[in-house]
Amino acid sequence: MTARYQPDPIMRVRGNPAHPSTIPSKRPTTAELLTPADVRDSADLARLLDQLGCGDDLIVVSNRAPCIHSRSDAGIVAQRPAGGLVTALEAVLSKEGGCWIAHGSGSADRETCDAADHVLRQHLDAPYRLRRLWLSDAEVAGYYDGLANEALWPLCHRTDVQPTFRQADWDEYVRVNQRFADAVVSEAASPRPVVLVQDYHLALVPQMVRAQLPDAVIILFWHIPFPEPKVLARFPWREQMMAGLSASTVVGLHTPADLANFSMSRASSHGAGGGAHAGAYPISIAWPARQDAPDPSLRARIDARFGIAPGVRLLVGVDRMDYTKGIPQRLQAFERLLEQRPELRGQVTLLQIGAPCRGALPAYREIARQVAESSARINARFGRAGWQPVVLHAASLDAHAVNECYRAADVCLVTSLHDGMNLVAKEFVAARNDLRGALVLSSQAGAAAELQQALIVDPRDIEGIARAIGRALDMPLDEQALRMRAMRGVVSQFTVFRWAAQLLSDGLRIAAGRRERRLLG
Fold first, then answer.
1. What is d(CA 123, CA 78) in angstroms, rounded to the nearest whole number?
2. Is 50 within a domain?
3. Where would I find the beta strands (DSSP E) of 340-496?
4. What dihedral angle (degrees, nearest 10) is formed by the CA atoms of 434, 436, 440, 446?
């Protein structure tokens, strides 16, 4: 499949099939009632939570913590992962009484906690409680590295990496999920807490919590693609997992395709008798509160930082070093472009940010090796004095540095082989208040359903990606502006706060309806 060209990039803003109402509406005044569609930022979300009467018994459960404490030469250092998800979930927990439960993995995490495993106030600048759960090396190896990342992750993504199923990993997964569920029950302040469970690491938690707190409002969001039924059938513990998920009040998935896969698997599962409502809730980002003016010195800073030749056109890829992200195919396509268009040699550079990821697992060490070797080969083949076609930065960058890369780029490349959403695409769009730049976007990323004004590509079609990159580099400024304006209109309205608002609103409404039917019934 070749790149799909959109001849009229603004025409779909009013009729995006992923979002049937994308026309900006008047923001309600403080005296008016909010709906989830009105929510844009954390203040709106806080108002909606008050309106819904959520109370203070809100609990977030995730493998990764919103704050990690490490020991350094300067003492204890707090690290907060970048991203809209943490921002939105912290907005949900904006009142005293809320609690976040997560694995404690930092080198100084234990010494920053009290006897009840809550982070001490002097180490947590947040109104909620952060409860840490301590996992042994064996538990991490089985539950996280094994079942979650060697079995479920490749099972759910359409790549060439085959899942590995081990009974011992599943046993650890069950035990760790029970520990998280028990922590939820111990932290709940009432028989009816609102519990937000995050991702495939904790698929059994809803059923385990439901067994002890039958009236809990349990909302689970599955952050990765949900596999087709014939693929899920390979998972030896499919029935148990579907039963765990189906005990939720709401199961949230990214796209209608994910929803269809989940619904078909549940319909054919003997163990999934729960009454969970399942829906498509595309996740997003926090729209920037402040939009920086264009900075003439920005590109020079990026060039100096990464050793990029001045004056060249800049392609940017920002990914974890993960085999799902299609980085080798992206490099092949760039190499093909340089073969086909010799005039671009010396005129364009690909800056590939590749944050290390799960380096203990063989598949991740292999993808890092492939990317490094491909980059070196392309540079040896085409590079010249003063210009390297590929600049590989195999390290993490903080959010500010990533944003600067987005703003300096001529083209952003998101060519995932398979992705639940891919927020890099939305972050790039949000960063470009100058209405410049082009986005080349994989059809296999959930974001493609919303960002239809991107240049959509088949991530395995090397020739098609090469043509799309060339098309992006040649795109006139007025077309860039039309496309970018349309995409920014979608992302600015459908923020991560609106995502959280819709999930919470649906969960509370469905739970209330069920209680009412029981009382009447």
1. 8
2. yes
3. 348-355, 390-393, 411-414, 438-442, 455-457
4. 20
Give every strand in the sheet of 455-457, ordered side by side. Answer: 390-393, 348-355, 313-320, 411-414, 438-442, 455-457
CA distance 331 to 352: 9
Residue found under tokens 């540095």 = 401
**CA distances from residue 80 to 67, 68, 163, 400, 501 in whole angstroms, order as listed:** 5, 6, 31, 13, 23
102-130 burial code (b ≥16 CB/10 A, e <16):
bbbbbebbeebbeeebbbeeebbebebbb
Average pLDDT, the chain: 91
Q: Which residues pair with 79 in a beta bridge?
A: 68
> Do residues 217 and 326 both lie within one domain?
no
What count of Cα atoms within 13 Å lies in the side-chain half-sphere of residue 478? 2
| Structural domains of the chain, count | 2
Closest to 283 (Cα-Cα) out of 160, 196, 410, 194: 196
Q: What amino acid is encoded at 19 in this protein? A: H
Domain containing residue 445: 298-491
Give the pLDDT confidence of 458-494 residue by residue, as tens digits. Answer: 999 999 999 999 999 999 999 999 999 999 999 999 9
At which residue do the structure tokens 């009142």 appear?
95
Q: Are 285 and 84 in contact (CB under 8 A)?
A: yes
pTM: 0.91
Residue 472 and residue 501 in one domain: no
Integer Cα distance of 121 and 114 in angstroms: 10
Query: For the CA atoms of the chain, what is the radius of gyration?
Result: 23
